[in-house]
Amino acid sequence: MKTWMSAIAMTALLGLGACNNLTSDQRTVAGVAGGAAAGLLTAEALGASNEWRLIAALGGAAAGTVVAQNQQQKVCAYARGDGSYYEAPCP
């Protein structure tokens, strides 16, 4: 079972390279789907209960959305160390 999930995860990672020419909405949908899948696969690999699988998928979807939008805007958030952060162009 874990080998099967690893194969799906690797295939998904290879598919992310094709995301260069997406519109903003398409990039957001891809981020949501990819994040949810990553969260669900992680919860499954750790043997989580159904409730935790749902929470992991929702958390992954939220993180995927933020990453997709951040890549679209080309702005990164940097921590200052005092709990605050600032935004600047990504390197």
Task: Kindly describe this structure.
The chain is mainly alpha-helical. The chain has one domain. The chain is 66% helix and 11% strand. It is built from 3 helices and 2 strands; from the N terminus they run αααββ. A two-stranded antiparallel sheet has the order 1-2. A hairpin with a 5-residue loop joins β1 and β2. The longest helix has 24 residues. The N and C termini lie far apart (39 Å). The model has no long low-confidence stretch (mean pLDDT 75).
Question: What is the topological layout?
Answer:
Elements: H1 2-15, H2 24-45, H3 50-73, E1 75-79, E2 85-89
Antiparallel strand pairs: 1-2
Described by the principal axes of the CA atoms, the overall outline is flat
Total DSSP helices: 3
Strand percentage: 5-15%
- H/E element order: HHHEE
Mean pLDDT, to the nearest integer, reads: 75
Helix content: 55-70%
Tally of separate domains: 1
The number of strands is 2
* Uncertain ranges: none
Radius of gyration: 15 Å
CA(first)-CA(last) distance: 39 Å
Strand order within the widest beta sheet: 1-2
* Structural class designation: mainly alpha
Largest sheet: 2 strands, antiparallel
